[in-house]
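Could you join me in thinking about how sequence relates to backbone shape in a protein? We need material for that, and I hope you will provide a protein of your own picking. Label the sequence line and the structure token line clearly, so we can match residues to local backbone shapes. Would you write everything just below, so we can both look at the same thing?
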Amino acid sequence: MPKWVPRAIALFWMMFLAALVARELFHQLSSFMLLILVSIFLALAIEPGVNRLAKRGWRRGSGTLLIVLGIIVFIFGFVGAVGSLVGNQVADVLKNSESYVNDTVDFVNSSFHSNIDPAQVNASIADPKGPVQKFIKRQQGKVITLSVSALGASLQLLTIVLFTFYLVADGPRLRRVICSRLPESKQRAVLRTWELAIEKTGGYLYSRALLALISAFFHWIAFQAIGTPAPIAMALWVGIVSQFLPVVGTYLAGVLPLLLTFFGSPFKALLVLLFVLIYQQVENYLISPRITARTLNVHAAVAFGSAIVGGAILGPIGAVLALPAAAMVQALVGSWGPRHDVIDDDLVRMPTPKAKRTIRKK
């Protein structure tokens, strides 16, 4: 037997065992790594605001704490307001369920020429052995599970907040530690990449916030005209959820105002559904490409594809993080390597803008 065979066999099994250990460690630490990834994203997002406060004389720790607390207060206030509205509406539905059922059945009978008896529908809902009551009892048994899940989510949120705070508050020190291990040319490349990541992440949040504000404004006008309950809260809900949950956010956001309006008037709910669908198309083809192109400079196909890939890999969080990551990668690739003049050909010739007509005053 050649002398290298035992060594090759031992090396193979050592590499196999190392791969198994690495796989198990990755599986155990995947949730923690996801929290770190979200923390890095938030740190890049709030870094410009902290830098502005630091230039005005604020300590980085105080400025970071102020911005983080402001974000937390806004999120909890927004969720609390929407949750209170939904809870009141659910309580009203349970209290006046019979009248809501009668109105809905009358609307269905008059619209689709059916002969549904509202008394039978109310009897089936109140039947202890019916599917509605069984569903309610099953949900009551999940209170403990939901409480444990809420506690786990709160701990994860606290972890993200702490990591985000330390990454931003000690940002200059962290960058100095990294650059101290690199030569001068590498230091410039690292700092340029870091600055680019901050720019693209901030541009992403700026574009999302602007789109959310525009969406909330138009939805508020529509909800006010239609008669949706709490039109301002519902418009803010649609604007924020639709923009910060890519791909499916619009449809998930439209479910809540649709249900709240349906309990009062099914016809008004149909109007809400039509407006949400129409506005989504207008936003996709007219509003979003213009704003995204100015803030992120990402092609629409690249943005859509990155959101799908990110969602497939990391779920909803990956869909949110994919767009600024794609913008940063595109900017890095675009700045790498030399550039050359493009030859004159029909396939690469750009259309010339039309000259504006000037009206001469007599």
About this structure: Residues 186-334 form one domain. The chain is about 80% helix and 0% strand. The chain has a mean pLDDT of 79.
